[in-house]
């Protein structure tokens, strides 16, 4: 099969959210075809298009590269799910006064919280796990057990290692 047939004639990449024109049955990316008034392939003046689920299924089987360069073997169809759980995923510190961006790996992220925000780590850890749960990657238990010790002006209650916190 000639996979170049699945490339969008506007951006020349494999079509993303493929749309098929009704005039010439050409496949385009949704974002490439949406703003156009006429077909860029056959020049039909009245452009209409529809989703092409067969092309979508074929494209979802193509290999993809993780944006975090983890070398995992992923396909276009599972790339979005993979990026939510990738070990090389980047994290931004949730502390409003910190501004640290692009911390690589969960271990480095948690290390940053402990070393830079020891008094405020409870809320930061809670926010991290809430984000993880929203991204459909619930963790069964936190990797660092915590114990409430005192209130903090930045986040609320502070935590200390060695005792598991109550889970929400």
**What distance lies between the first and last C-alpha atoms, to the nearest angstrom?**
51 Å
Share in helix: 25-40%
Q: On the 0-100 scale, what is the average pLDDT?
A: 78
Instruction: Output the radius of gyration.
Output: 23 Å
The assigned structural class equals alpha+beta
Describe this structure in words.
This protein is an alpha+beta fold and 168 residues long. It has two domains: 3-61, 2-Layer Sandwich (Herpes Virus-1); 92-161, no CATH class. 26% of the residues lie in helices and 17% in strands. The chain has five helices and nine strands, in the order E-E-H-E-H-E-E-H-E-E-H-H-E-E. The chain has helices at residues 30-33, 53-60, 79-85, 106-116, 121-134; strands at 19-21, 27-28, 49-51, 63-64, 74-75, 90-91, 103-104, 146-152, 156-161. The strands form four sheets. A three-stranded antiparallel β-sheet has the order 2-1-3. A two-stranded antiparallel ribbon has the order 4-5. The protein is elongated, with a radius of gyration of 23 Å. The model is unreliable at 138-166 (pLDDT under 50).
Can I get a quick summary?
The chain has 168 residues and is an alpha+beta fold. It has 5 helices and 9 strands; from the N terminus they run ββαβαββαββααββ. It folds into 2 domains: 3-61, Herpes Virus-1 (2-Layer Sandwich), CATH 3.30.40; 92-161, no CATH class.
């Amino acid at each position: 099969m000639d996979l170049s047939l699945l490339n969008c004639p506007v951006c020349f990449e494999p079509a993303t959210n493929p749309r098929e024109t009704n005039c010439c049955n050409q496949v385009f990316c949704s974002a490439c075809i949406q703003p156009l008034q006429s077909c860029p392939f056959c020049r039909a003046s009245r452009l209409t298009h529809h989703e092409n689920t067969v092309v979508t299924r074929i494209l979802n089987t193509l290999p993809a590269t993780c944006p975090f360069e983890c070398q995992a073997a992923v396909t276009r169809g599972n790339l979005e799910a993979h990026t939510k759980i990738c070990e090389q995923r980047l994290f931004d510190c949730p502390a409003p006064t910190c501004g640290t961006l692009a911390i690589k790996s969960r271990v480095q992220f948690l290390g940053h919280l402990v070393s830079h925000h020891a008094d405020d780590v409870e809320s930061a850890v809670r926010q991290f796990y809430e984000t993880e749960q929203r991204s459909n990657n619930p963790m069964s238990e936190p990797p660092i057990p915590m114990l409430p010790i005192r209130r903090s002006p930045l986040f609320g209650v502070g935590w200390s290692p060695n005792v598991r916190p109550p889970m929400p």
